Amino acid sequence: MISSLFKKLFLLSTTTMLLTLLIVLSFSKISSEQKQTKVELDTIIDLQLRVDLLRSQLWVFLQFGDQPSLKQVEYAQAELATQLTAYREQGSQFDNIQRMNQSLQALLGQEKRLYFSDINSQHGISATRLLHSRYNMIVQNMTEELAHVHRVVLDRNADNLTNVMTYAAAWLIFCSLLVSFVAWLILLRFKSDAESIKKAIVDLAKGKLDAKVDTASMDSEFKVIAFFFNQMTISLRETTVTTHELEEEVKRQTMQLKKKQEQLIFLSEHDPLTGLYNRRAFDKSLESAIVKANRSGCKLAILFIDLDDFKCVNDTYGHDAGDVILVTIADRLGKVTRQSDFVGRLGGDEFVICLDLLQSFDILPQKTQQIMKAISEPITYNDRELKVSASIGVSHFPDQTKNKEALLSIADEAMYRSKQVTGASCFDGTKLTCEGMKSEVVELASARKLTP
What we know:
With 452 residues, the protein is α+β, with helices and mostly antiparallel strands. 69% of the residues lie in helices and 11% in strands. The strands form 2 sheets. A 6-stranded mixed β-sheet has the order 2-3-1-6-7-8, sandwiched between helices. It has a two-stranded antiparallel ribbon with strand order 4-5.
């Protein structure tokens, strides 16, 4: 018994290849037999046509008995002789016809001698009649011989095809049974070995560290897998820890993963310098705030903040000083906003605040004053006092627009209007609309200038 899955598969594939080769050879043999039979039948048909031509020429000669018709008979007989000579290499099946044709040739020679002698004598007339009857007999025998050869060819072809089909069918049945047997053997052994390994793995999953795979009747490939599995269970029994220790380790690893996940989420949503929301996180929070405002009927305001004189400080005292200013401003903005509000840094020295859950906008003047004051307070850096101010633009939801992008754009445009004024300032256009926002000159029905 073969104890290797590879060897079984190799035997199966080899047998399949032999089966395929046998089928190809069988069809090739059948095709060859058919081609040979076709050639022989074509030869018989050609000879039959020659014999029919000879018969027709003889009939003409017997009707007219003149020299031209005799020459046509001789010509037809000569063509038949030529074809028989050409087909002689196919075998001896046309030998009888060739002998008949030779006899016919001899009779035609006698016919010519009688034709030039006294054919009107009693002896000549009798000889001529005898020759004519011999003509008909020979041509008839040729036709019968061709019919016999035709039948022999067909019988031989049928016998050859029967033999080919019989041997091919026998080998096909044998190879098919062998393939089926090998495939069934592989299936049974594979299923048995796989079930043994599966049972051992299930036992191990249930905590049975003494699980072991019996390799006595396995194929060599599965024996290797079973050997490593058994070695693994031995190592597990030697190195396994208690359930309590395992639970503690799982808790510790889970906490570490949770902390790392929280860190990754924080880094993906917050500005790495200030810790404020980045643009993506601010947009996401603003979307949620707009949905909540639509549902609750509350209002919200966007404060777009740009630091004045920040570039001058940054160029004069360096990027470290600029970073200190940004971090300090971010901390101050967090202190002057409510817990429901959220602050983001859009990049550079631009900040944005969303005042959420507002019942009205009456709080805005006081809140913007508070923010400008907090930003304008001095910042100490390397024993120096640095000061920056803020230009603020305000937009209102839903009074001005219900669209998130339009809300930010209105606040941004209002901020740029505020920057036209020297020093800290806030521009609040309470009736700015989305359509007015697209034009170069925006008309504001109510605007007020606030200074700290």
